[in-house]
Amino acid sequence: MTKYIGVLTAGGDSPGLNAAIRERARGGKKFSIVAVAEGALPQSQASKVEAADAQKRMARTKEDKQRAKAALAAIAEQHGQHTVHLAQQLESLTGLEARVTILGYLQRGGTPSAADRLLATRLGTACADLINEGVFGAMVAARGEGAEAVPLERVAGNRKLVPLEHPWIASAKRVGTSFGD
């Protein structure tokens, strides 16, 4: 069974994210930052995604694969506003104002740095080289100081999950990050 690190919880039987935020407020903290992973889902939907993923893996015919992909797409469509919904839940549960910032929009809206420009040049040049070599159906990935072609089949429609036992999770918890558990 897949465990989703990006499962959204705002309450329920566990102490929850709302409790962690209220505790910070009682301790005099004037704000809390809640980071929501792009692929995070409400707990109620995580099992639906697992079932659809399993259906996709077990599909033998082209039609079965298309049905499984359509089921996954429908789930994704339903939860395009999950971060806004979570913010509304947290406001209701904590009595505190919640503001949503989509980091990807913010990151793409600033002035590019020299490093941004060098990366864009490196990846753009690698793309042009691949086109010149007749390589299509691939994306360019930065690897160390270079770039490499990655077939789209390897990345399209795949989720990259952070396992609950990952060292990043342990480190985040050691510095006081709450995952709502």
| Percentage of β-strand residues | 5-15%
Outline the low-pLDDT stretches: 1-9
Sheet with the most strands: spatial strand order: 1-2
| Shape descriptor | globular
Give the averaged pLDDT, no decimals: 81
| Terminal residue distance | 19 Å
**Oligomerization category of the chains in this entry:** single chain
Order of helices and strands: EHEHHHHHEEHH
| Total beta strand runs | 4
Derived from helix and strand composition plus strand pairing, the structural class reads mainly alpha
- Report Rg: 20 Å
Helix fraction bin: 40-55%
Number of helices: 8
Describe the largest sheet.
2 strands, parallel
Structural key phrases:
disordered N terminus, 52% helix, two-stranded antiparallel ribbon, 181 residues, 8 helices, mainly alpha
Describe the secondary structure blueprint for this structure.
Layout: E1 7-8, H1 16-26, E2 41-42, H2 43-58, H3 62-78, H4 82-94, H5 103-108, H6 114-132, E3 138-143, E4 146-151, H7 152-155, H8 167-174
Parallel strand pairs: 1-2
Antiparallel strand pairs: 3-4
Helix pairs in contact: 2-3
